[in-house]
Amino acid sequence: MKVKVATKILEANDRIALDNRRLFDQAGVFVINLMSGPGAGKTSLLERTLAQATGLKIGVIEGDIAGTDDAERVERLGAPVVQINTGGACHLDANMIFEVLDDMPLNSLDILFIENVGNLVCPAEFRVGEDMKVMLLSIAEGHDKPLKYPLMFQESSALVLNKIDLAPYTDVDMEKIRRDALSLNPGLKIFEVSCRTGEGIEGWTGWLKEVSGKGFPQP
Amino acid sequence: MHEVSIALSLIDIITAQCRKEGYGRIEAVRVRIGRASGIMPDALAFAFDAIKGDSMASGAVMEIEEVSLTGRCRDCGVEFTSDEEYVLACPACGGASFVMTGGRELDIIDMEVS
Ligand SMILES: Nc1nc2c(ncn2[C@@H]2O[C@H](COP(=O)(O)OP(=O)(O)O)[C@@H](O)[C@H]2O)c(=O)[nH]1
Ligand SMILES: [Mg+2]
Ligand SMILES: [Zn+2]
Ligand SMILES: [Zn+2]
Fold it and tell me: Which range of residues forms the domain containing residue A126?
């Protein structure tokens, strides 16, 4: 007996992502899926963002294969944080997020960051219910990355180029990164920052207030 | 990269539907995988065989249809098909501004049940 299935394999994930999205919208929280290869500086960017006096109330969901180091780093700065350990999975999916939402005070947040598992490939394939995807690339990873890992550059709304303090010690061609990233995604917003020195962080947090619509005092 | 989690979702979907239709065994399943989906057909078939275990799909054979990457160039308007897993420039004009119209598929088409 032949049975038509005609279903997208990721449909279950997308459905849960929509449920998450509904909860986020009800709570009025703006959600950013933060992605990069391992060690590009996702947690460092969150630390810098939290330390900046933005007036934004920020919560963080940390996704790692194992360990709680990142959650501890964020907790030290006083932000509500939940750690997810994927136990080997190379990305976060919508259900993993759904299961920890009870532990996040969504109603009192302006922005929720979801720090994805360090991986330049998979995280871009799985929606988790975010308003936007933001990716980091540290310049030490090399200027060939946009053309080698195009999907993440195409799916992201913003690219944070981190570790610009290291520029004098590398042969990286920043213009090539910009050019290739913009050719893959003409609308991509690009920030050059150093989480070590703090350079460029104000531009990033200013933009965060703007896109989240949370930067202006409520009347 | 995550063929195992894709195979798990696939088994969840087909066993649920098999049960709903009132059958007990899945003999075969046909899937459509885009060349640019990030999923390697061989790795997916391997993962499927490794985990179908004692599910209703334990005896199921998976047939994979691969879908080529297709796109339409925003600069010159050409529609193209490629056998690559990723296209970075329009094959006609070399421009990098194009929309992918196919190749990202991860779909279950149908299955044979008894
Ligand atoms: N030199 C330099 N090092 C940085 C910068 N940002 C992060 N790092 C270092 O890079 C390493 C990885 O950073 P982390 O935030 O844990 O990366 P994650 O894995 O993406 O979360 C740490 O040792 C950071 O101190 C930067 O702007 N400049
Ligand atoms: Mg981290
Ligand atoms: Zn993955
Ligand atoms: Zn063209």
Answer: 2-211
3-class secondary-structure state, position B107: strand
pLDDT at residue A216, rounded to an integer: 64
Q: Please tell me the distance from the alpha carbon of residue A115 to that of residue A109, in angstroms, as a whole number.
A: 16
Distance in Å, alpha carbon of A83 to nearest chain B alpha carbon: 21
Residue in A47, A195, A197 to alter for ligand 1 test, most ligand atoms within 8 A of Cβ: A195
In a domain? residue A66: yes
A217 belongs to a structural domain: no
Contact (Cβ atoms closer than 8 angstroms) between residue A50 and residue A74: yes
Q: How many domains does chain A have?
A: 1
Token code pair at residue A6: 């005609």
CB pairs under 8 A between A and B: 76
Interval A93-102: pLDDT, tens:
999 999 999 9
Cβ proximity of A110 and A205 under 8 Å: no
If phi > 0 it is left, if psi is from -120 to 50 it is alpha, else beta; for residue B23 that is beta
Structural domains of chain B ordered from first start: 3-68+102-113 (3.30.2320.50)
